[in-house]
Amino acid sequence: MTADDPVLLALGSINLDLQVRADRWPGPGETLPVRDLLRAAGGKAANRAYVAARLGVKACLLGHVGDDDFGEEVLRGPRAVGVDVSQVKRIAGQATALAMIVVRGDGDKTILLAANANEAWGEADVEAVVKVVEAAPEGSVLTVDLEVPIAVVRAAVCAAQARGLKVLLDPSPADRMPDDLYAMIDVITPNPEETRGLVGVEVESAEDAVRAGEQLLARGVGVACVKLGDGGAALVTAGGREVVSPLDVEVVDKTGAGDAFAGALGVALLERQELLQAVKFAVATSSLAVTAYGSQAAYPDRGQLERARGGREPRG
Ligand code: RIB
């Protein structure tokens, strides 16, 4: 790779994930025994950067960690796969964000998030991110989530727009999405819960996802990729609608699958893959991401992805 190669910029959360498996959520006052404790690096931006590096492109992580031990721990994995973590700032006196994750038997998860350093941004920090976007090589792609303040997201998106760089937004958490941001987004990637939060549509079928995608387009986004509960996605553009089925895999844990989708889609945009191919690439990556316990640990490299795509038929 050379200094001129395009970069996947990942702006958003960097968390330490503490994950357990449980059969149900505890009732009020109840202590519920759980199993399979996992302590691992996570966070939506860190996960996107990680999967992008695994898939073989340059990735740069933009975000904050605390000046505690977790701050170093959460960057070790991304650094080891080649993610550029030089722009991640350690915030003095802040704790690194902590995600407490409970995974149920069917692989679905619930997350409690202590945002800590993810929310600690001053004006100079926002300017530093804008400078990175302004200096990124031609053809780079900005990916953002909403687990950092909207002010930094908006500033980075504006800088990317001014450069003509593509912007992918994973709208999580959906209640933070401001109305004026839609028109600045090339590709939006909500899951069913986020879709309900954004446009009030319950995504129970591919038709629901397409309908929701059309409403997102009406708000100004260029392309809507609405994820389905089965791991597939509906691609909605001004020119048409397509539904992509997931690979036929055994679901172990859905944590981080959406980040794998967003990161892989960002890679495909950076590689200028045709849009439907790009969504198939992203769906296949997130299909593999659910086959192991934890987020980053389950992300495939390019060879694993291509072998799986060659050998496994999409479901349905
Ligand atoms: O999307 C999964 C991620 O969400 C986890 O890694 C956790 O950190 C939360 O931000």
UniProtKB/TrEMBL annotation:
Carbohydrate kinase PfkB domain mapped to chain residues: 9-301
Gene3D superfamilies: 3.40.1190.20
Cofactor: how bound: Requires a divalent cation, most likely magnesium in vivo, as an electrophilic catalyst to aid phosphoryl group transfer. It is the chelate of the metal and the nucleotide that is the actual substrate.
Activity regulation behaviour: Activated by a monovalent cation that binds near, but not in, the active site. The most likely occupant of the site in vivo is potassium. Ion binding induces a conformational change that may alter substrate affinity.
Residues reported in the UniProt entry to bind substrate: N15, L16, D17, G43, K44, A45, A46, N47, E147, D259
Cofactor: Mg(2+)
Residues reported to bind K(+): D253, T255, A289, A292, G294
Pathway: Carbohydrate metabolism; D-ribose degradation; D-ribose 5-phosphate from beta-D-ribopyranose: step 2/2
Subunit structure: Homodimer.
Function, in words: Catalyzes the phosphorylation of ribose at O-5 in a reaction requiring ATP and magnesium. The resulting D-ribose-5-phosphate can then be used either for sythesis of nucleotides, histidine, and tryptophan, or as a component of the pentose phosphate pathway.
Protein name (database record): Ribokinase
Annotated organism of origin: Nannocystis punicea
